[in-house]
Design goal:
The chain is an all-beta fold and 168 residues long. It is built from no helices and 16 strands.
Length: 168
């Protein structure tokens, strides 16, 4: 006698005479009543709980690369994925320069005014536009001038015309 199972449960063919059903384990599902086995959730989906009848698609910002997954993997900070049901880490794209994201992002966020970032960044940093006396701006940080040089312009040091030292 075949016992008709509930959705999300199965009864092995070796136990058709029984009256109990077994819940599908996490990462698997049974989409119909009377199932004799469970099916692995396909890549791009997952089932965290046991006894499910469908595997939800991974949300944007996440992916599942293999079948039978009990959870989706988050895209790393500095990347994003706007796709739902992504089945590969390649769905996670780098944020562009001057944009950033945390993990599991579905989009990147523009850096606030006065801040910037390189491509693939998970945060923004203050933009340095001027340096203290005796330093010059190199890329995005201040660098000390060499001995005997002074800062005449923001981006370089020049030879000092008069070098005076006060030794006390």
């Amino acid at each position: 006698m075949i016992f008709f199972t509930e959705l999300g449960k199965y009864q092995p063919t070796s136990d058709y005479s029984g009256t109990s059903c077994t819940s599908c384990s996490s990462g698997h599902y049974a989409a119909s009543t009377g199932s004799s086995s469970c099916t692995s959730c396909p890549a791009g989906t997952s089932a965290a709980n046991s006894g499910v009848f469908l595997c939800p698609s991974c949300l944007s910002g996440k992916y599942s690369a293999s079948s039978g997954s009990s959870g989706c993997t988050s895209c790393f900070g500095g990347t994003y994925s706007s796709a739902t049901g992504a089945s590969s880490a390649s769905a996670c794209q780098n944020c562009a320069a001057n944009y950033y994201s945390g993990s599991a992002a579905s989009a990147c966020t523009a850096c606030p005014s006065g801040q910037s970032s390189s491509a693939g960044s998970s945060s923004c940093e203050a933009v340095v536009t001027s340096c203290d006396a005796g330093q010059y701006l190199s890329t995005s940080s201040c660098v000390p001038c060499a001995v005997g040089m002074l800062q005449a312009v923001v981006l370089a040091c020049t030879v000092s015309d008069s070098l005076s030292l006060n030794l006390a």
